[in-house]
């Protein structure tokens, strides 16, 4: 009884093994079938690629150069439809890499296109066929150009001298002062390009930059911001100088003088001297004397109560600013006759 039960258990496993062998054998046959189909498909595709076809393809055109006295306006790239004839693999390769090899049209050539006016040019189908055919790779024939025409807009070439404007920012360290204005060299330059583009410009600017805290004069070369591609600047950078010096304070007693006094009158200013506190560069501190600073009062018969405002006539180099005490003085006016 036990032997019969064991046999009945082994029999199903034996049948399962046979079925698995048949399944794997059938799958191997299916795999071989698909392999043969793949090989046949590849061979069929290669055979088809060796045949000759006529197809319509869109291709990119790049406009180069410009006619004398004018520049091209807008995007130099165009798209055209072409009818090409060639073998399948050549057509496929051309289409795959067409964006990397655009046709080039030199607008400086007199016969490349037709000038309809000073501001407009047109390439017709015949002109495009003559230009594009020689640029096709070997094995392709240009049957026809399907695009009707390519239009080109031109702007008269002009030249303007524009000022250079700085976009630099900085801070002065404590007890330091700018002893002169920011200097640019050159402070203006020639820009050439389409008149329409130039009319919209009022200056050329440097790059924007923060120079931080300055403790000494700044001397460097700074790039200019690029203009539109149609415009051409004579230089791309300028020299920048910011004169900076450390300063201290000095006090002097300076004598006043009256100007504009008629010959018939004598004017005595009261007081005759005023105290001047000025900020002066360290290098000029010892050399600065009272006689170097010119202060005056301008006579007027309409002065209220004979009082006049003290005015600065001349400051020597190295003196940045002055504080005058008193800033208003009195006067005694007498007749000489």
Categorize the overall geometry: elongated
Beta-strand portion reads: over 45%
Q: SSE string, helix = H, strand = E?
A: HEEEHEEEHEEEEEEHEEEEEEEEEEEEE
Please give the largest β-sheet.
7 strands, mixed
Structural class call reads alpha+beta
* Count of all domains: 3
C-alpha-based Rg, rounded: 45 Å
Number of E strands = 25
In terms of per-residue confidence, which ranges show pLDDT below 50 for 5 or more consecutive residues? Answer: 1-11
| Overall pLDDT metric | 83
In percent, how helical is the residue content?
Answer: 10-25%
Q: What is the end-to-end distance?
A: 167 Å
Number of helices: 4
Tell me about this structure:
- The protein is α+β, with helices and mostly antiparallel strands and 337 residues long.
- The protein has 3 domains: 49-147, no CATH class; 156-242, Beta Complex (RNA Polymerase Alpha Subunit, Chain A, domain 2), CATH 2.170.120.40; 247-335, RNA Polymerase Alpha Subunit, Chain A, domain 2, CATH 2.170.120.
- Helices cover 20% and strands 47% of the residues.
- The protein contains 4 helices and 25 strands.
- The chain has helices at 2-49, 88-96, 125-132, 195-198; strands at 52-64, 70-72, 77-87, 103-106, 114-117, 120-124, 140-145, 149-165, 168-172, 176-178, 183-185, 188-194, 204-205, 209-214, 218-223, 232-233, 237-242, 244-259, 265-270, 273-281, 294-298, 308-309, 311-314, 319-325, 328-335.
- Strands 2, 5, 6, 8, 12, 13 and 16 form a 7-stranded mixed β-sheet that branches. Strands 10, 18, 20, 21, 23 and 24 form a 6-stranded mixed β-sheet that branches.
- A hairpin with a 2-residue loop joins strand 5 and strand 6.
- The chain is elongated and about 130 Å long.
- The N and C termini lie far apart (167 Å).
């Amino acid at each position: 009884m036990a032997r019969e039960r064991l046999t009945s258990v082994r029999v199903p496993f034996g049948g399962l093994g046979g079925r698995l062998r048949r399944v794997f054998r059938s799958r191997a046959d299916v795999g071989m079938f698909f392999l043969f189909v793949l090989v046949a498909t590849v061979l069929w595709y290669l055979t088809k690629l060796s045949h000759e076809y006529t197809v319509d393809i869109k291709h990119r055109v790049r406009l180069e150069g410009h006619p004398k006295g004018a520049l091209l306006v807008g995007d130099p790239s165009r798209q055209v439809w072409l009818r090409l004839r060639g073998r399948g693999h050549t057509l496929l390769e051309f289409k795959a890499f067409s964006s990397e090899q655009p046709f080039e049209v030199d607008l400086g050539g007199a016969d490349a296109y037709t000038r309809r006016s000073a501001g407009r040019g047109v390439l017709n189908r015949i002109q495009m066929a003559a230009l594009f055919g020689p640029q096709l790779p070997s094995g392709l024939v240009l049957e026809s150009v399907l695009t009707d025409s390519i239009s080109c807009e031109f702007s008269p070439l002009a030249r303007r001298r524009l000022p250079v404007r700085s976009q630099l920012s900085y801070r002065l360290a404590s007890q330091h002062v700018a002893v002169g204005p920011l200097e640019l060299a050159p402070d203006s330059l020639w820009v050439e390009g389409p008149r329409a583009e130039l009319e919209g410009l009022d200056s050329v600017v440097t790059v924007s930059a923060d120079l931080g805290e300055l403790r000494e004069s700044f001397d460097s070369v700074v790039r200019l911001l690029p203009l539109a591609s149609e415009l051409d600047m004579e230089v791309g950078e300028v020299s920048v100088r910011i004169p900076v010096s450390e300063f201290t304070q000095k006090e002097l007693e300076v004598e006043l003088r009256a100007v504009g006094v008629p010959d018939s009158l004598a004017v005595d200013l009261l007081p005759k001297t005023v105290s001047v506190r000025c900020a002066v560069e360290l290098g000029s501190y010892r050399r600065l004397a009272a006689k170097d600073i010119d202060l005056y009062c301008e006579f007027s018969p309409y002065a209220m109560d004979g009082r006049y405002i003290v005015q600065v006539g001349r400051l020597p180099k190295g003196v940045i600013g002055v504080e005058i005490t008193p800033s208003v003085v009195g006067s005694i006016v007498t007749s000489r006759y």
